[in-house]
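Dissemination and training. As part of the outreach component of the grant, students in the summer workshop were shown how a complex can be specified as a set of sequence lines and then modelled as a single object. The example used during the hands-on session is reproduced here so that future cohorts can follow it. Participants entered these lines:
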Amino acid sequence: MRNESDREIQSFFDQLKEKDLKIDFPVFPEPTKPSGINWWIPFGIAASLALGYFLWPQQKQDFNPPAEVIIITLEKDENDNQQILIEEKTYLETWESPTSSLLTEY
Amino acid sequence: MKKHWLETILKELHSEAYHWSRQCCSFDEDRAKDVLQLVYLKILEGKAVYKEKSQVKTWLFSVIRFTAYEELRKEGKNTSLDHLADMAYEDDPPENDSHEALLQALPERQKEVLLMVFYHDMTLEQCAEVMQLHIGTVRTHYDRGKKKLKEWIEKTRIEK
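and obtained this result:
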């Protein structure tokens, strides 16, 4: 392809190449390898959860049974003597409709 | 495996790639560095894929050339890669007779073919692949460019 007359042109480009050798060119960018799993992240999450578990204000559950109501009633017996009756009942057992008095009073 | 292999070849071709990038960027070193960075990024992100139809060097040169013109077009310095005007050039060599100035005075495609053949030791077939032109068209650019450059080299020598 190249003949004698190309020598001049080749020498021109050789000179250019020589000049270009003095040019600083950037280094080849090395691709950074992924560093696998960063174990600090899961470790940090686990540590935070553990710390949170111990420091979280825990609500104390009240296991006491509901207080019973002591009902003291005054009743008259067969001889017209007044008698005190003491009964212990839970709330549910003693619940009374707030309007029940209407039935008895009117 | 293929990625590692390509990386090794790119590393070997890095110096040549930089010079080609500089030549495509009108010998502007800063722009050449930016263009090469963009090219590597394109390859890394899979936007430029080597399909083993050509040599790695030919493929890489073609990506660099395309990216360089893409950047020039963004800056409004050139209209399009397909419309690189082969304007009528001056008969007299440029006042600045440096190697770069003489090459810059040539029409773009003639400059590219001569650089690829004489500087980068590529064949006309490879030039045609890089420039995506018919081999006949490339040969015409090669002959015209060679003739003009030879004239200018002789003229500048006489003037000196």
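Chain A has four helices and two strands. Students were then asked to discuss how this feature might be tested experimentally.
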